[in-house]
Write a structure and sequence with these properties.
By secondary structure, the protein is an alpha+beta fold. The protein is built from 2 helices and 5 strands. It is flat and about 50 Å long.
Length: 117
């Protein structure tokens, strides 16, 4: 019989083993890629499920947005000029506010951990 911990580990690892469909575009080529994002705009495509993407990514540099899929992603918010946001659900790199909420949730989680230890 499989114990509850084994089932939980399997369920948690499932989303990470599936490939993601992500938006791909460059704000240098298409203004539809920049915020506010226009998913149906010229120059905006989707990667589809036939890829190795485990992350959807949104990069911003000097207000120019690039959206893509990747196998690894490191979120940064080092300056107001350059930001990288990472997410792990289909087409999640469309939203602007999603990344702000995720970043705030991460900060809250880290703050909670530091209080525990």
């Amino acid at each position: 019989m499989i114990n509850k911990l084994t089932v939980l580990c399997i369920l948690v690892s499932l989303p990470m083993s599936m490939t993601l469909n992500c938006y791909t575009c460059s704000g240098l080529i298409s203004t539809a890629c920049n915020d506010p994002f226009n998913a149906t705009g010229s120059g905006v495509t989707q990667t589809g499920q036939n890829n190795n993407n485990t992350y959807c990514q949104k990069d911003a540099f000097l207000g120019i947005i690039t959206r893509s899929g990747s196998t690894s992603c490191i979120a940064t918010n080092s300056t107001s000029l350059s930001t990288t946001a990472c997410c792990q659900t289909d087409l999640c790199n469309a939203a602007y506010s999603h990344y702000q909420v995720s970043f705030l949730m991460l900060i809250g989680f880290i703050a909670a951990l530091t209080r525990i230890y």
